[in-house]
């Protein structure tokens, strides 16, 4: 996840706070699936857990922050340890959804210095429980403070560079995502082992190389769906998928909508905005 893109998104979008809750789950328990209409930010404060988002599994640990797009089904499956996490939900204006693809995206962030991030997250939970008449105003302010601190923590962590240049690897992926590249090929191109490439991606980016490649491909597909009239099969091929049916399945797992549904929904929102103007 590019920190500057994330910062620009939160700085530019019209964000409104929805709710904040803390969940504590005992070892070896599975939570029921829940449908979430708006976007969610999940912060693991202790323990380990596996979250399944629209059939895709994300393994999280203390310090992991998972962003989940709207219109998704979330289920939690824990490991052998007790787990505590905070779930914060927010919205942006409907006519902004097509402008900010990050709102509908699922991605993991890992932070080392979690103290202040957790502090603001817990304050959100406590204020949301409050019957104070000014609760909504306080929560709005706290949400912005939480986001600023999260960005700050991510920026500080990014300064701790690994032995190889991750930016060059990311740039390579950005240049070759439309090709049928494999993780082995990427690792070989930089003279490292696949296992090492995976470990540094998990450590510094919060996702595996294949997850990063997939997320980038889907992001590019979203842009093409919004900005062009290309057919789905053309878009599939142009972002590195030979099988357009497989592309559609991956796209739906990542965004909660099929490519056709995504295009129609964004087109509808754009027309609504024009009519309002």
From TrEMBL:
<dbReference type="InterPro" id="IPR018062">
    <property type="entry name" value="HTH_AraC-typ_CS"/>
</dbReference>
<keyword id="KW-0804">Transcription</keyword>
<dbReference type="InterPro" id="IPR009057">
    <property type="entry name" value="Homeodomain-like_sf"/>
</dbReference>
<dbReference type="InterPro" id="IPR020449">
    <property type="entry name" value="Tscrpt_reg_AraC-type_HTH"/>
</dbReference>
<dbReference type="InterPro" id="IPR037923">
    <property type="entry name" value="HTH-like"/>
</dbReference>
<keyword id="KW-0805">Transcription regulation</keyword>
<protein>
    <submittedName>
        <fullName>AraC family transcriptional regulator</fullName>
    </submittedName>
</protein>
<keyword id="KW-0238">DNA-binding</keyword>
<dbReference type="GO" id="GO:0043565">
    <property type="term" value="F:sequence-specific DNA binding"/>
</dbReference>
<feature type="domain" description="HTH araC/xylS-type">
    <location>
        <begin position="167"/>
        <end position="265"/>
    </location>
</feature>
<dbReference type="Pfam" id="PF12833">
    <property type="entry name" value="HTH_18"/>
</dbReference>
<dbReference type="InterPro" id="IPR018060">
    <property type="entry name" value="HTH_AraC"/>
</dbReference>
<dbReference type="InterPro" id="IPR014710">
    <property type="entry name" value="RmlC-like_jellyroll"/>
</dbReference>
<dbReference type="GO" id="GO:0003700">
    <property type="term" value="F:DNA-binding transcription factor activity"/>
</dbReference>
């Amino acid at each position: 996840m590019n920190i500057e893109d994330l910062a620009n998104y939160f700085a530019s979008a019209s964000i409104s706070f929805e709710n904040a809750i803390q969940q504590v789950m005992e070892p070896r328990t599975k939570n029921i699936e829940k449908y979430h209409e708006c976007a969610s930010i999940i912060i693991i404060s202790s323990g380990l857990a596996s979250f399944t988002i629209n059939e895709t599994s994300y393994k999280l640990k203390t310090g992991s922050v998972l962003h989940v797009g709207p219109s998704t089904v979330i289920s939690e499956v824990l490991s052998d340890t007790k787990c505590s996490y905070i779930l914060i939900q927010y919205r942006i204006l409907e006519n902004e959804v097509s402008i900010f693809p990050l709102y509908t995206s699922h991605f993991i962030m890992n932070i080392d210095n979690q103290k202040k991030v957790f502090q603001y997250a817990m304050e959100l939970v406590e204020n949301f429980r409050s019957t104070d008449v000014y609760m909504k105003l306080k929560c709005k302010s706290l949400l912005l403070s939480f986001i600023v601190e999260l960005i700050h923590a991510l920026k500080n962590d990014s300064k701790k560079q690994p032995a190889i240049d991750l930016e060059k690897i990311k740039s390579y992926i950005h240049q070759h995502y439309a090709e049928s590249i494999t993780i082995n090929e990427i690792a070989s191109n930089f003279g490292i082992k696949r296992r090492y490439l995976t470990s540094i991606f998990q450590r510094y980016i919060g996702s595996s190389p294949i997850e990063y490649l997939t997320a980038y491909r889907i992001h590019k597909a979203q842009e093409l769906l919004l900005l062009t009239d290309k057919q789905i099969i053309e878009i599939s091929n142009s972002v590195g998928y030979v099988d357009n049916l497989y592309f559609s399945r991956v796209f739906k797992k990542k965004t909660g909508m099929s490519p056709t549904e995504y295009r129609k929904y964004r087109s509808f929102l754009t027309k609504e905005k024009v009519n309002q103007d």
